[in-house]
Amino acid sequence: MSGTLWAMVRIELMLLVRSPAVLGSAVVLPFAVLLLLMLFIGFSFPTLEFGAMPGVRVIDRLLPEMAGTVAASVGIMVLTTHVADLRDRGMLRRLRRTPARAGSYVVAHAVAAGVLVIASVVLFAAVTFLVYGPPRSWHPLSLTGAALIVTYCAFSTGLLLGGLRMPAAGARVAAPLCFVVLFAGSGLGVPREGWKGVAPWFYEITNYNPLAQLNDFIFHASLGRLSETWPAVAGLLVAAVVVNVLTRRTFDWDGRP
Amino acid sequence: MTPVLDVTDLSKAQALEEVSFTVERGEIVCVVGPPGSGKTTLIECLAGGAEPDSGSVEILGRTVGPGDPLPPGLAVSLRDESLPDRMKVAEGISLFSRLYGTRGLPPRLVDLLDLEPLLPKRFKTLTEGQRRRAMIALALAGNPELVLLDQPTTGLKPGSRQRVEQAIVELRDGYGGVCVTLDDLAQAEKLADRVVLLRRGRVLAEGSPSRLIRLLGSVFVLRVPSHMKVGRPRDVRVLPYASSTYLYGSRPALESAIQELSPMSGDRIWSIRPPTLRDAYLTLAAVPEPAALESGR
């Protein structure tokens, strides 16, 4: 990594880590979801086994699910508000006046987002492994790769939203709203198969929710399998590339009419 | 010698009209005018933040058009720019030094801007004066040859203001050209090697402060509060403004005007003073031919 890029990544990470909202979205979120599920469903819930998948506990499903959720949260919620805030302060304009290329700024953000997601997943995995023990079978490399794919999709969306000519206050409303809709539609942290019997209409929604499809993909990747949702994930990857091209045209560095 | 900044016939609808001026190496040029005269728009056009309708800008020998990358030797500090609240000043300077490929700010500038105590502080905790000094420091982290500063001292306390002024002088002495927009004519008179007087987006006059003052001829100035009725004293030019009325003329002519004002002013002590850059601006804005003041026409 070149010195300039490393300097930008370091600063981005430092800024993100110093933000309570970022720590909440990346670090606290998975633990909060786990705690809420236990409070509502029961403290034995994480160790229950899936009927359809013997030997796979709810917590084994929740870990990859939370990896996807954190990636979406960092990519969409954190990145959108962060970019809008930097533009609002004229920091983007200032960065653009330097000899550094615009691409290195975007890459720095992507690397910082990736590091944040991986750090969060590692922490959540470490704690859950300590409490509930590791899964019988899991593939950390596949899990990491799948989580990075989801991070890329979410990052692309966040960069598009953050790059729109929108005041920072608008971004602070739009980005969390977008994430909450995605998270709610993905099954609210509950493995989506669980909704089949309780609320079939809700399960139907998860069939069309991009985050639910991505989470399914990560879950199966963590078991070393290819999810049935892979065509949807491939479609989302292509969409992310299209979004990147669109972002190149629409990204607003100045924030001026 | 090629100027470091050459602005030719720069126009932007409702803001600038055929503005032309140059900045040479080792010179401070102050673009001065009241709020709304087009100073900030001008700097934004030069910094690539706004697109001019016509005209050309040459920076450090390179013609810069809309969307073109700016030459690395240019530093810009705009008023409405800041850094994230959570970033420390030292981190900002270090980041921008890296981006410009320099070793950071010269120690002399750190001392002049009194940055040492600010380095560990986050931007959120800085006062307006400290923030402005830090932002100027960021602009200078790239070791620039030409510096554009938009109203760097407006609203600052005298201490911060003086530090910024010293830094500007240091830049001229050490680096190259400095173009500063100001709305304080007295400050421009003190600071500038050359002044560009801007009014309603047009250049009213350009030159050294002493040359612009000399345009008024050998007149003196008497300032009268606006509530006092002045009338039409002999051989004196009267320019009424909202806060004061200015009388321009020879010393004897102004002394006779004081005699006429005495019944209204009681024991008030009047002072006749030589003209300043502010007088030159006010006069040039009101009188097409300033030499006419000498005859009181």
Rg of chain B, rounded, reads 22 Å
Strand order of the largest sheet of chain B: 6-7-8-3-9-10
In sequence order, what are the helices and strands of chain A, one letter per element?
HHHHHHHHHHH
Question: N- to C-terminal separation of chain A?
Answer: 36 Å
| Major sheet attributes of chain A | none
Task: Tell me the CATH superfamily of the largest domain in chain B.
Answer: P-loop containing nucleotide triphosphate hydrolases
What is the total domain count of chain A?
1
How would you describe this protein?
The complex is a heterodimer of chains A (257) and B (297). Chain A contains 11 helices and no strands. Chain A has one domain (18-250). In chain A, helix 6 (140-163) runs parallel beside helix 11 (230-250). Chain A has helices spanning 3-17, 20-41, 58-88, 91-97, 102-132, 140-163, 168-185, 195-198, 200-206, 210-222, 230-250. In chain B, a hairpin with a 2-residue loop joins strand 4 (54-59) and strand 5 (62-63). With 297 residues, chain B is α/β, with parallel strands linked by helices. In chain B, the strands form 3 sheets. In chain B, strands 6-7-8-3-9-10 form a 6-stranded mixed sheet, with helices on both faces. Chain B has a 4-stranded antiparallel sheet with strand order 2-1-4-5, covered by helices on one side. A 4-stranded antiparallel sheet of chain B has the order 12-13-11-14, with helices on both faces. Chain B has 2 domains: 5-207, P-loop containing nucleotide triphosphate hydrolases (Rossmann fold, 3-Layer(aba) Sandwich), CATH 3.40.50.300; 215-295, Alpha-Beta Plaits (2-Layer Sandwich). The model of chain B has no long low-confidence stretch (mean pLDDT 86). The A-B interface holds A 3-4, 7-8, 11, 14-15, 18-19, 85-86, 89-91, 93-95, 97-100, 254, 256 and B 47-50, 69-70, 72, 74, 76, 78, 80-84, 86-87, 91, 94-96, 98-101, 138, 142.
